[in-house]
Amino acid sequence: DKQRIGMEQKWDEEYTRYWINNPWCQVCFGTAVAPAHIISRGSGGSDKSSNLLSLCLSCHQHQHNKGWAWVISRAPDLKDKIDGSRN
Questions:
Q1: Residue 63: which of 50, 48, 49, 78 has the closest Cα?
Q2: Residue 37 to residue 64: CA distance in whole angstroms
Q3: pLDDT tens per residue across all 87 residues of the chain
């Protein structure tokens, strides 16, 4: 277990493996801070690689402010993965 914002956070093995294997932002190719969940864990999303995208802090903030459409506009090759997780 790890601590994250004062809450106990369990890191799934697949999540950890995804982070190790995808250290670069999949939008701008900067250094990723951690994989983002396409469907948040709070909304029932999992730590499976099909629900994760490596994003840098800036791109992750843009995603939260502008939505997944912003990510797709910058990296169209991620559309199928994002849409597949949300449907």
A1: 78
A2: 11
A3: 344 444 445 567 888 899 899 999 999 999 999 899 999 989 999 999 999 999 999 999 999 999 999 999 999 999 999 998 876
Residues forming beta bridges with residue 31, ordered by sequence position:
24
State the residue for tokens 């903030």.
Answer: 61
pLDDT reported for residue 72: 96
User: Token digits for 22?
Assistant: 């995808």
Please report the sign of the dihedral spanned by the C-alpha atoms of residue 56, residue 45, residue 12, residue 76.
negative
Distance CA 36, CA 19 (A): 10
What is the pLDDT at residue 58? 97
Q: Which of 87, 85, 81, 3 is nearest to 41 (CA)?
A: 85
Amino acid letter, residue 14: E
Closest CA to 31 of 11, 52, 59: 59
